[in-house]
Amino acid sequence: MRIVCISDTHSRHVDMPQIPGGDTLIHAGDCTGNGSLPALYDFTGWFGSLPHKSKLLIAGNHDFCFERYPEWSREMCKKNGIVYLQDEQVTIHKLVFYGSPWTPVYRQMAFNASEPEMFELRAKIPNSTNVLITHGPAFRIFDFVPNDAEHVGCFPLAQRIDELANLKVHICGHIHESYGYAIRESDGLRFANASTCDSRYHPVNPPIIIDI
To answer: Which of 63, 114, 180, 196 is positioned for an S-S bond with 59, CB 3.0–4.6 A?
Structure first.
């Protein structure tokens, strides 16, 4: 299966680099800039029009629409052939995909959770998960913010990832400055921070392709 990964398009999707073909297209959150329903309507129309057989979406900390208007937001996704995952899983060609939007508390953003809450949320990730999609990165994995000289990823997520024996890929976004892809030498686990926008919210980073 060819997985194409994007994230953090922030309503700039029409200006981003061309999206290559593939089997499954994943957006790891922050599809909108202001979290409004009109912004989501525009995004889901565009995302749903892409030719990939399966399209998966999770929310990000800017996507307030999924918190405030969950039924309308889900309906927009459904009408456009998009599978929205909020602490949920879906199986595609025998691969188990699990998506979760939560990030550590930062200002008054959507889907923020304290560290104790994060431990509870991460414990819900099924042991059968093959492809994990979270908006934020795990601690010390594509989570570095140069201006603050700080790693800001989720520690409970990092711990849970190491417990998941069937996990093959972790896809995230959120930290624009840490866009990238790597394979961990110790176990072959693949990590992708697929943030499309850079630190100045310019949609310049190309999609990340993962063959699995």
So the answer is: 63
Query: What pLDDT sits at residue 139?
Result: 97
Residues of the chain by 3-state class (helix, strand, coil), percent to 5 = 25, 30, 50
Please give the structure tokens belonging to residue 197. Answer: 């926008």
Predicted model pTM: 0.97
Q: Distance between CA 78 and CA 208 in Å, rounded?
A: 25
Contacts of 54 (CB under 8 A, 6+ apart): 23, 24, 25, 83, 92
Could you tell me the strand order of the sheet in which 83-84 lies?
A: 83-84, 54-57, 24-27, 2-6, 208-211
Query: What are φ and ψ of residue 67, in 5° steps?
Result: -85, -45
Q: What's the alpha-carbon Rg for the chain, to the nearest Å?
A: 15
**What is the Cα–Cα distance from 67 to 149, expressed in whole angstroms?**
31
DSSP summary character for residue 83: E
Of 3.50.50.60, 3.40.50.300, 3.40.50.620, 3.60.21.10, which CATH number belongs to 2-211?
A: 3.60.21.10
pLDDT at 29: 98
pLDDT at 108 over 90: no
Strand, coil or helix: 133 = strand
